[in-house]
């Protein structure tokens, strides 16, 4: 559905450009921004990275009781900078740096990353489902290009949500007994391969250990809710900063975040992925905002929610003495 939305959004944007793009409206979008609301949105965006570091500390608490929150924030900032620069391959940078700094296995940190993605996906599904349920009640008029998304969205949410719950339960059942069974099955491998495979299985089991502690699950869930409240607050401040969309209420912002959250699934190096096209599509098709204004707002949204961490990440990487060319090829090093 995300890919199809990107194609529709790209076609819609091209059609608007072909019919005549009004550059004065586009540039006016930036000129009319309220700096105080923008500053508030930037502050909330930066706090979300601190929140992610805090949540990661809970995810690996059973592996290491005392983990420096500062080191986790540094790894988080550098990791998300790598995502902006390299796309999805940059996802491995954060677990790699945390494993290296905290002297933990890379496999266990990839397991923590998987759990984090599941929590975020479940929160995104909740917001998206809420958006679907409130679109008609809010009075928003859906255009032809996005109406089919509304019709299929409920089934999509149910299907993906079911998969998330299944994976979560499966990981929770991945205890000592499951680990022993997998190790027994690995005995057919040659010794040099078996030792490495058993080490990976053990590290992964340690990484998903937090799913077997209901208090830890509850704590991570609460932190995830707070994280997404900060994200919604960030979007709300950005909309308040622009006179063209300052009339948006909280439910309008939730509807927008619900749809756009899936645009972040696809990342393009140096561009940030489908977020911009989905933002333009939702603003034009759902809210009737001119394509020029929508394009400008999409750039502002992307800059604050994605790119704002890049200067900090670059400075921290320089301070840590990291080589970006090596970080770009971490996948080859760890796999």
Keywords:
about 325 residues; globular; disordered N terminus; 16 helices; about 75% helix; single chain; mainly alpha; about 0% strand
User: What is the helix tally?
Assistant: 16
Characterize the overall form. Answer: globular
SSE-based structural type? mainly alpha
Task: Give the amount of beta strand, in percent.
Answer: under 5%
In the predicted model, the low-confidence regions spanning at least 5 consecutive residues are: 1-9, 265-273
- Average of pLDDT: 78
What count of domains describes the coordinates?
Answer: 1
What string, H for helix and E for strand, traces the elements in order?
A: HHHHHHHHHHHHHHHH
For the record, give the distance between the C-alpha atoms at the N and C termini, rounded to a whole number: 30 Å
- Count of individual beta strands: 0
Radius of gyration: 21 Å
Helix content: over 70%
Major sheet attributes: none
Description of the molecule:
The protein has 335 residues and is mainly α. It has one domain. It is built from 16 helices and no strands. The protein has helices at residues 2-18, 23-31, 35-59, 69-86, 93-102, 106-134, 144-172, 176-185, 191-207, 214-241, 250-260, 275-285, 291-305, 310-320, 324-328, 330-334. Helix 3 runs antiparallel to helix 10 and helix 8 runs antiparallel to helix 9. The longest helix has 29 residues, at 106-134. The chain is globular, with a radius of gyration of 21 Å.
């Amino acid at each position: 559905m995300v890919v199809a939305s990107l194609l529709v959004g790209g076609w819609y944007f091209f059609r608007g450009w072909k019919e005549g793009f009004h550059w004065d409206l586009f540039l006016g979008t930036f000129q009319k921004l309220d700096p105080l609301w923008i500053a508030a949105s930037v502050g909330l965006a930066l706090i979300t990275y601190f929140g992610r570091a805090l949540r990661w500390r809970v995810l690996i608490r059973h592996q290491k009781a005392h983990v420096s929150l500062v080191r986790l924030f540094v790894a988080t900032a550098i990791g998300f900078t790598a995502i902006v620069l390299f796309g999805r391959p940059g996802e491995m940078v954060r677990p790699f740096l945390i494993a290296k700094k905290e002297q933990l296995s890379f496999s266990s940190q990839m397991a923590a990353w998987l759990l984090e993605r599941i929590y975020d996906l479940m929160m995104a599904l909740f917001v998206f489902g809420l958006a679907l349920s409130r679109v008609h009640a809010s009075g928003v008029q859906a255009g032809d290009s996005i109406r089919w998304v509304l019709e299929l969205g409920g089934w999509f949410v149910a299907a993906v949500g079911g998969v998330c719950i299944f994976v979560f339960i499966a990981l929770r059942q991945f205890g000592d007994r499951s680990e022993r069974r997998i190790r027994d099955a690995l005995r057919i491998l040659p010794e040099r391969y078996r030792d490495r495979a058993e080490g990976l299985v053990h590290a992964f089991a340690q990484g998903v250990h937090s799913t077997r502690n209901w208090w830890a699950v509850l704590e991570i869930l609460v932190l995830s809710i707070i994280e997404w409240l900060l994200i919604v607050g960030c979007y709300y401040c950005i909309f308040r900063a622009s006179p063209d969309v300052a009339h948006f209420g909280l439910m309008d912002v939730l509807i927008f975040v619900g749809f756009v959250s899936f645009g972040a699934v696809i990342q393009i190096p140096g561009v940030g992925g489908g977020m911009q096209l989905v933002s333009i599509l939702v603003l034009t098709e759902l809210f009737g905002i001119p394509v020029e204004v929508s394009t400008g707002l999409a750039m502002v949204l992307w800059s604050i929610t994605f790119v704002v961490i890049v200067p900090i990440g670059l400075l921290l990487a320089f301070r840590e003495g990291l080589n970006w060319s090596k970080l770009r090829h971490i996948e080859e090093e760890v796999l």
